Amino acid sequence: MQFGMYTASENAAVMAAAGWDFVEENILELLQGDVPDEQWRGLERARRAPIPILAANRLLPPTLKPVGPDFNIDRLQSYMRRVIGRAAKVGMKTLVFGSGAARMVPAGFDRASARSQLLEFIRTSAEIAAAHGVLIVAEPLNRGECNIMNGVAECMEYVRAVNHPNFQCLVDSYHVWLDREPLEPLAESLPWIKHVHVSDVKDRNVPTEQSPHDYRAFFRVLKRGGYDGPIAVESPTDPRVLSEPEKVLACLSRFWAEA
Question: What is the pLDDT of residues 175-204, one digit of tens each?
């Protein structure tokens, strides 16, 4: 089991000293798919990190739409080639496709067309990812953030439709709890779940003994399904990420052990 923290690679030394296994970065800030190669400095940043940058999220900027009337597959492919190629250079294994603002289906836009566009984007991206040994995982977002690919069951429809080893699924405790998804049905999707995010519903805080939801129950479902992949805390605004990383890791490890 590997535990990681969503934070800038410049904080990797703090995470390493606290015992964390990896850092999860921000694609828009580290890989910068809209920045020309000669201006990109992400590789130098990544090389200074003492622990691996195994994953990154925020796949698409809000202005690059994989659905809707502004869908442009050539622009999307060009962007993804750059992002995926850079991910491989820094040793990153997983890219998280959340990007709720980008993938939001515009009001009045045909849902079947949106699904078709998403599938085209995902299929072409998975092929690019395969050439570089990178995995893309679909992040099921809550209905307050996005109006498509909500919940693990809906994301799994896309995973099955694409049917490509380089496109799999993620589960995030925050979205599960916010949308009140039942935990037990997650078990049937676990063969395709390759990345996990955790945080509290309240302000996306880090896991603590005072957390309003039961991480042990969440982890128990993962364990029963044989999950042994990365688990990343995604709490971008909680100051305890940097001020108490040892305590956060100890709590997370205890929840997993007791699940």
Answer: 999 999 988 778 899 999 999 999 999 999
Q: What is the pLDDT of residues 79-91, one digit of tens each?
A: 999 999 999 999 9
The predicted pLDDT at position 236 comes to 97
Q: What is the pLDDT of residues 216-225, one digit of tens each?
A: 999 999 999 9
Q: Which fold has domain 2-258?
A: TIM Barrel (3.20.20)
Q: Is 163 exposed, middle or buried (0-12, 13-18, 19+ CB in 10 A)?
A: exposed
Q: Where are the domains of the chain?
A: 2-258
- Within 10 angstroms of residue 41's Cβ, the number of other Cβ atoms is 10
What would you measure as the largest C-alpha separation in the chain, in angstroms?
51
Q: Reduced to 3 states, what is the DSSP secondary structure of residue 209?
A: coil
Alpha helices in the chain (DSSP H): 12-18, 27-30, 42-47, 73-89, 100-103, 111-132, 151-162, 173-178, 215-224, 240-243, 245-258
β-partners of residue 172 are: 197
Q: What residues does 137 pair with on adjacent strands?
A: 96, 168
Check if the beta carbon of residue 102 is closer than 8 Å to that of residue 121: no
Residues 230 and 228: their CA atoms lie apart, in Å, by 7
